[in-house]
Amino acid sequence: MSDLLNRFMRFRRGPWENLATLVIAAGVLMLMQPLSLTLYTWSFATMLAGTVMFVIVSKFPE
Amino acid sequence: MTMASTEEGTLRRITAPARTRRIRGLSDKAIAWAFIAPTMVLLLAINIFPLIWTIYLSFTNYQANRPNRPITYVGTKWYRDILGSPDVWAAMQATAHFVFWTILLQTLIGFGLAYLIDRKFRGHAFWTTIILVPMMLSPAVVGNFWKFLYQPQIGLFNSIVSFFTGIEPSSFEMLGSVNLSPWSIIIVDTWMWTPYVMLICLAGLRSIPDYIYEAAEVDRASLWRQFWSITLPMALPFIMLAVLFRGIENFKMFDMVNLLTGGGPGSTTEVASITLKREAFEKWRTGYSSAFAIILFVAVFGLANIYVKALNRVKQR
Amino acid sequence: MSQALTTAHSVVAPSPLSKRIAGAIVILYALVSMIPLAWILMTGFKTPPDSIAYPPKIVFAPSLEGYCNLFTTRTRQTQEYIQSLGPPQTICDEITRKRDMVIAGPSNYVPRFWNSLVIAFGSTFFAVSLGVLSAYAFSRFRIPLADDLLFFILSTRMMPPIAVAIPIYLMYRKLGLSDTALGMILLYTAVNVSLAVWLLKGFIDEIPREYEEAAMIDGYTRLHAFFKVVLPQAATGIAATAIFCLIFAWNEYAFAVLLTSGEAQTAPPFIPTIIGEGGMDWPAVGAGTTLFLVPLLVFTVLLRKHLLRGITFGAVRK
């Protein structure tokens, strides 16, 4: 667990980019899922956050 | 003949420095920017400026068919409307249904075909080219013709189904029935784009070096195990690439659906792009549709980021 | 070693039987996927009653009526009037008169087809010209934020066309570019230039830098080396890229249907509007579709070696 935390704290591109990818994917799933209107409502914010995050973390060193 | 051309070559070698010394001075940096600038200017004018305009419009009540009405700010009203609307949510689910099934079918059939073509039977290059033809064709023009194939009674599709199943060809309507129309667009899209997935999967299978299989053979790994522990994992980045691209493309699918069902019957096949077109160019709610466009844009932009990541992964191979 | 050969496994050296089965399945799929296209071709040569016969006719007497209807507009006339005319001049005259109609004039198909040609070739020319310059710069020079610029260029191609069409529609209305060939050429150039940059960058990356460097040691400037050395070397890549751009512009429908309606309308939004008396004139649609698709078949054959590159933005090269 602390190992995982460590990997993120070093601000390397790899793990952060994967996290951003997950957030974007989650946002798109929320947008199209048929289960909950609340999830749908928050999908845009999630996708936007994921995309902004992706753009930022792609500037981190490899 | 040879003499003349070599002579010309030497001649050019001698004159070149004299001729070009005059225009030396353009540094590499200047050339780089001069070469990139026209593309950037065009993209800024045709893509970025309109995008910024769309963002601005999405906060106003502007209507394109009433250009003289004063524009008022409405804040995030449209975004809240769209993200709280069960109708738009239903359109997103229609899109999801379409995207999910087309990708599933295309991946299964496409990968299967690629796996078979990779056996390199005689004539495989020719038949691969034949299979690729549908994806080169205009989705709109061909989609329009599928409307004819789907006609009850006179259409070829119903007749073929009836030939194999014995169901009366006039007893079902692919385009007119609420249950079948979502499948009518899935069938056409699968027919059209399975070759795309097949081609990328084929590249993936061909990128697996033979020595890996030879090593597996030495280890006496069964074919089944070879497939699950070598073929599939090594082709996976390619499959992901195809899935992502088809996913993005079908998420914004417009032309084929617009011509085939136009979103109908009712709104059963009203995918996101059709909703957007209705709001923007039929109801002329420009502000509302701008906000919807931005939502779709963010989704596609996010997915495009992932796509480029997948692209680079494949490139490194 | 000899043992390895006899027990050769299926992927490195598939057994003859598995090859034959694989071949049979693939060929079956190919044939089935050709049925709709064969039907388009056949429908073009049917008469309207044959085209809507039940059950669908596989064997029929070929007729040129579809092609005649595609290229002409017709009006219904009385028998007396038709008999008062001289003998039919063309085969289309003859076919039309059998249906109690006379040819009133040419249809819009030829002008729409021409628009498609002009817009497709125009936008391809500009996209490839701009693309090759940018691709060269991205390939050879260190450009700050090159990855971001390349991603930005690619992302513009991925935008949903309808989302882009809203502001473009407003912008073109202000600039007087709506329903003009120039407007469509600009738009398609912008969409295609992204593909052109990515594809051509891949092709130019493959040309060894030493070629230009040698030329520059010989006294060529960078510009000269680009035109005299790089461009000829990249000729195949440029041709392949051009065909990809042509295919996109030729097939495009969403922008065309929203932004053009008359003068500059291309063939894809026009073909679905071909109607006869009492519904769609399917033979004419079949004929129009056939003619529209023929160039694409030619392109497919020309491009088959480069297709993979084209559909993966140059990332997968074989």
Structural topology:
The complex is a heterotrimer of chains A (62), B (317) and C (318).
Chain A (H helix, E strand, L loop, with lengths): L1 H8 L3 H20 L4 H21 L5
Helix pairs in contact in A: 2-3
Chain B lengths: L1 H19 L7 H30 L19 H8 L1 H32 L6 H13 L2 H11 L6 H10 L15 H26 L3 H9 L4 H29 L3 H6 L11 H11 L3 H30 L2
Chain C lengths: L1 H5 L9 H29 L3 H4 L13 H7 E5 L2 H6 L6 H8 L2 E6 L2 H32 L5 H13 L2 H15 L5 H25 L3 H9 L4 H12 L1 H17 L2 H6 L7 H4 L4 E2 L2 E2 L1 H22 L3 H5 L7
Antiparallel strand pairs in C: 1-2, 3-4
Helix pairs in contact in C: 2-16, 4-16, 7-10, 7-13, 8-10, 10-13, 11-12, 13-16
Shape of chain C: globular
Distance between the termini of chain C: 30 Å
From the coordinates shown, what is the CATH architecture of the largest domain in chain C?
Orthogonal Bundle
The total of beta strands of chain C comes to 4
- Strand fraction of chain C: under 5%
Detail the poorly predicted runs of chain A: none
Discrete helix count of chain C? 17
The portion of residues forming beta strands of chain A comes to under 5%
Major sheet description of chain A = none
User: What integer is the average pLDDT of chain A?
Assistant: 87
Largest sheet of chain C: 2 strands, antiparallel
Q: Helix and strand succession of chain A?
A: HHH
Question: For the record, what CATH class of the largest domain in chain C applies?
Answer: Mainly Alpha
Question: CATH-wise, what's the superfamily of the largest domain in chain C?
Answer: MetI-like
Overall domain count of chain A: 1
Number of domains of chain C: 2
Rg of chain C (CA only): 26 Å
Name the features.
heterotrimer, B: 317 residues, mainly alpha, MetI-like fold, 13 helices, disordered N terminus, C: 318 residues, 2 domains, two-stranded antiparallel sheet, 17 helices, 69% helix
Q: Could you give a short description of this structure?
A:
Chain C: This is Carbohydrate ABC transporter permease. The complex is a heterotrimer of chains A (62), B (317) and C (318). With 62 residues, chain A is mainly α.
